[in-house]
Fold Probable malate:quinone oxidoreductase.
Amino acid sequence: MSNNPKKSDVILIGAGVMSATLGTLLKELAPEWEIKVFEKLANAGEESSNEWNNAGTGHAALCELNYTTEKADGSVDISKAIKINEQFQLSRQFWSYLVKRSIIERPQEFIMPIPHMSLVQGEDNVTFLKKRFKALSTNPLFEGMEYTEEESKLNEWIPLIMEGRTSKEPIAATKIDSGTDVNFGALTRILFDQLEKQNVELNYRHSVEDIKRAADGSWEVKVQDLENAKTEYHKAKFVFIGGGGGSLPLLQKTGIPESKQIGGFPVSGLFLVCNKPEVVEKHHAKVYGKAKVGAPPMSVPHLDTRYIDQKKSLLFGPFAGFTPKFLKTGSNLDLFGSVKPNNVLTMLAAGVKEMSLTKYLIQQVLLSNEKRIEELREFIPTAKLEDWDIVVAGQRVQVIKDTEAGGKGTLQFGTEVVSAADGSIAALLGASPGASTAVHVMLEVLQKCFPEHINEWENKIKEMVPSYGISLVENPSFFKEIHASTAETLGLSEKEPVLH
Ligand SMILES: Cc1cc2nc3c(=O)[nH]c(=O)nc-3n(C[C@H](O)[C@H](O)[C@H](O)COP(=O)(O)OP(=O)(O)OC[C@H]3O[C@@H](n4cnc5c(N)ncnc54)[C@H](O)[C@@H]3O)c2cc1C
């Protein structure tokens, strides 16, 4: 690309929570490495990681019904819930380590305790929730979960949801107090501020336009300085593509075989937000319901207490939508530009397969505000249109690929690390469970991309994340100890946190 690119050890593309986490891990493991970050926006954490662009749920499978499925024999499969819970425990441990190291000074700026609840209506759903509760509550990771069908208890747990409820359908809920609300935007900003203090070069308003393999096997990155309309060339032995929705087009530019036959489908999101103190004060939980029939898993409706800038508000949604943009700040050409000769059949197959998703998205796009409030009234029967505003959330680019189980063009709902065989470049695709599992996913990047260092790093990783490589579900006393100590360090022990 250029005769004279500027060299560094590591280039991180994008200043979201994923690059923030990877950069922080690397600075602890290899402090002497030179790291550069390129972010096209003016600040860190402005896209999906921003507090208003996601729901801020610390996903630990404490309330999300889509992480537990009913098997053909009627029993409930909790294996995915266990996996996600264990992954969130890694995040809690790493964040606690950062608090102890004073890299994070005030954890309440980004994490707050909030009960997580599942709420269902109708006989079949109540039967399912009861079975799910039985399966989870006897598992050490979900200890403390409560279940009720009693109106008096529900009035106590969710007064706003019960007020004015006339439906005679059976209703049931589970509640666990160890849930969290996480401000991933604040976390991202804290981590990048600290990285800057540790001499990481942060280049905002710098858009990465191209990535090519250099003759020596390292990577050359073409960067547009948006402030001065100048083109720069940089080179590194390792590149992480943490561009969120923007990762797929950049991965495609690398031309690595692993980037082929992969497509992306963007799903946008809207939330309703209430800041009216009289309403906000009546609710104190994240309450997850059940996705409507035919709706994708990320459309599970939920009513959340949020803590943003030390202020409480309520969030309801998400309502899905469609724009062809891969980033909220992206271009309408993103989707079409991502269709290449090597993935066109995969994309077409997905188009044919996912008719129900297409139908669902069209219905969602056509929803009027009144219709959205009607959906909200299934949660809060007394909700008034004038108390709620609309917030446009981030874009989720769902991965489409050919899989053995699903066949050609299968839509994926998880996150996925795609890396070159030699580990010199990695990209993160997909969006769920997302930011909550950033530490787990970035540890996976380290394992895949730095096999020659991982043994020498193991002790340090265990210092930062004591349960690294250990199954917590199989070591309940270790889990208890870790859960209690991270709760203490992160200030999650109090039920009703004090806002400072
Ligand atoms: C509606 C919604 C609700 C969600 N709810 C939750 C939740 O409750 N809990 C949870 O854990 N997760 C949730 N998520 C997922 C979570 O937000 C994401 O997984 C996470 O923020 C992704 O972080 P990231 O760093 O990969 O991407 P981002 O935060 O999007 O950061 C990527 C950055 O890369 C930059 N970039 C892109 N292309 C380029 C380029 N070419 N050059 C330079 N810079 C570039 C972008 O500007 C951006 O700043 C939700 C997501 C959405 C959309």
The first strand starts at residue 6 and ends at 13. The chain has 15 helices and 21 strands.
